Amino acid sequence: MATRKKSLLKVIILGDSSVGKTSLMNQYINKRFSNQYKATIGADFCTKEVMADDRVVTMQIWDTAGQERFQSLGVAFYRGADCCVLVYDVTSPNSFKNLDSWRDEFLIQASPRDPDHFPFVVLGNKVDMDNRQVSTRRAQQWCQSKNDMPYFETSAKDGTNVELAFQTIARNALAQEAEVELYNEFPDQIRLNTDRNNRNGNADNCQC
Amino acid sequence: MDVEPPTNYSDSASMQSNSEYSDAECEPHIDENEYFHDTEREHNEIAHSVISEIREGLTPGTQNASNGINGKNANTSTNVHKSVSAESLPISNSTSTVSGEIVNSLSAATLDEGDDDDAQFDYMHDSVWRGQKKHIFILSEAGKPIYSLHGNEDKLATLFGVIQALVSFVQHGQDAITSIHAGGIKFVFLVRNTLILVAASRTNMSVAQLQLQLSDVYNQILSTLTNKHVTRIFEKRKNFDLRRSLAGSERLIYHLLSNDSSNKRVTNNVFTFLTNSIRVLPLPTTVRASIVSGIQSNCSKIKDLVFAVLIANNKLISLIRMKKYSIHPADLRLIFNLIECSESFKSSENWTPICLPKFDMNGYLYAHVSYLTDDCQACLLLLSVDPNVFFTLSDAKRRITDKLRSTKSLEAISREIEKPTNGGLNLTAIGIPELRHFLYKPKTAAQLLCSELMPPYTTLKEFERLEGIYCDLLHRIHNSTRPLKLIYEVHEREVVLAWVTAAYELYAVFEPLVDKCAVIKNVDKLIKWIEKEYDVFFIRNHPTF
Ligand SMILES: Nc1nc2c(ncn2[C@@H]2O[C@H](COP(=O)(O)OP(=O)(O)O)[C@@H](O)[C@H]2O)c(=O)[nH]1
Ligand SMILES: [Mg+2]
Predict the structure, then answer these.
(1) Inter-residue contact B389 to B427 (CB < 8 Å)
(2) Domain for residue B65, yes or no?
(3) From CA B95, how far away is CA B54, in angstroms rounded?
(4) Does B189 reside within a domain?
(5) Which residues of A touch B144 (CB under 8 A)?
(6) How close is the nearest chain B Cα to the Cα of A92, in Å?
(7) Whole-prediction pTM
(8) For residues A50 and B181, what is the distance between their CA atoms, to the nearest angstrom?
(9) B418, B434, B465 - which closes a domain
(10) How confident is the model over B47-74, as pLDDT tens digits?
(11) Using CA positions, which residue lies closest to atom 2 of ligand 1?
């Protein structure tokens, strides 16, 4: 059906509660900002089509709650992610410190094939606020120490860098996703032997 | 034939029968609730949609007694009735939290309207999409879309995420989600080896029947890729987009699913998957025997040839098999499906790998596929395990055709194919005017005989009703905890009968005003007639090479 090659990327947004994950997603999807706080429970999903490297890419964005609640989905949530977005709040040093454990958590649960090169993107959010506590330098240093993860400072409130950040997310995930070997190893030939007698077919005892 | 006074006699008009025959496998409360659904559905038919169902059904506080979530290990004790939501609290609770967020993303999507994205077509607010009688979704365990029967799966990525979350949530509790029943829609789940398949249906199909359909779809995917390949892909890359591997075979999945009334098709085909069987092209026994010997004599020396299958019009003419091997009806349906939706096979000889999952889910058979001649539209498949025998099989096919021509078998086949009854049985031939339609399946073979569809069941609306009747009868007869042997019901618009004996299953629909004595007499006549003609309509044994 599809003539053009389609790409779909699973993107997971992680970070402490109330750093602005949901707001960033909403800003990106709707270009709107709602000041109304609503704790994320369980999971939330949204989809956005973007152009990246001349390709139409569908981003399937998985938003999670911080902390304990979203453990309920466990491994399943992280499974098969193409990119992980780590978000902290520049006014909350704790949320920055916790990025380490969010990253580890992701790598353990998702167990990507090549953890060193798995595409992460780090966002320092709420840069519109004046009580900033984590310096750009500190954040950049940390990102460099972890295989040079791309770092953006964003505001979900005024939209600063949000578009740019998600563009990078799409492109990095795509680059990773693109290098797929074609699994076309020559299939094994079915071996016929006399005692086999349709082991599958006999299970429901139903033959034509 | 003696029809004893039915032990399980039930009159559909009485409410009693509703619980009497409720399916314990699907929990009694469901049946009870479905009664409520129906009344509810009548009132706000238009407003209902798959998504609004999820929303209304699962949001906490909606207090909709007619919703239930069934996990495999969910409490199946009797008399759960409306207290079910309390009993399965952990499940409904958290699924609701998920759906609470669905509501969010939905309202977010609403805000989006008129903003920037025309490309971002929003199916979830599209009345045509929402109004479909049946949806089928296939996704990877990562929640990536693989297939949607209706609509571009890319644009439904949000919904696929929600499905994945529901499935994993229940899995996390060491359980497996089987179905969700909400406001007249059944959501049925089948999780198989890294793939998640979901049906959302307003049809009369039961959970088990929808699962059978999902499992046919799953088999179709394996038929293209093999189980081993799918497993290996996802072992290596959990984020793999399986659409890449399936490109080009979506049409097979679509065709497989398009055989019932939900796709506006009025055909007997749907009954083969409902009864897990196949249909046979009626032929005089001498004709079939000479076809078989024509194939046998030209194939017996070919090493590694496992099956020779001759089919026409979605029906089996003959099957010759390697000793000790047999073919499962689900596998044969995949073969029928492949032939039905490959017009191109008509114009040339073809060589195609095909995995028959019930035969061997991990490897391919190699099929030489061709139609016999221009004037005989029967299709011959020669299936070998050896990928390098095209020319051997091509040669065998030519000799088989010559042989069948010289024995006049080609003519006999063509004559049957061209009959307007299309392999269905014309009831006037039997002389039972009160009988409108029937399904007959012998116990010893997965073969189905059905009568030609005649008025009133030739219109979509009436056919849907017929389909519904059979779904219901089959469901109750095959109930694993309370299987029934006999159902006789007087409905408003027909009299229906289901009867299981040691030798066969019979499902029949009569004129509404016929009385019980007449039904007994007619059934007797029908059975005698079928027994007399048995070898024309059924194949007792599939010979070996
Ligand atoms: N000033 C400001 N407030 C923000 C920004 N992003 C989020 N917020 C606020 O921070 C709170 C938590 O945001 P939310 O998106 O729910 O965080 P989440 O728990 O990570 O999803 C809300 O009150 C938001 O309005 C931002 O960039 N600037
Ligand atoms: Mg949130």
Answers:
(1) no
(2) no
(3) 10
(4) yes
(5) 8, 10, 60, 80
(6) 26
(7) 0.80
(8) 36
(9) B418
(10) 333 333 333 333 333 333 344 455 544 4
(11) A126
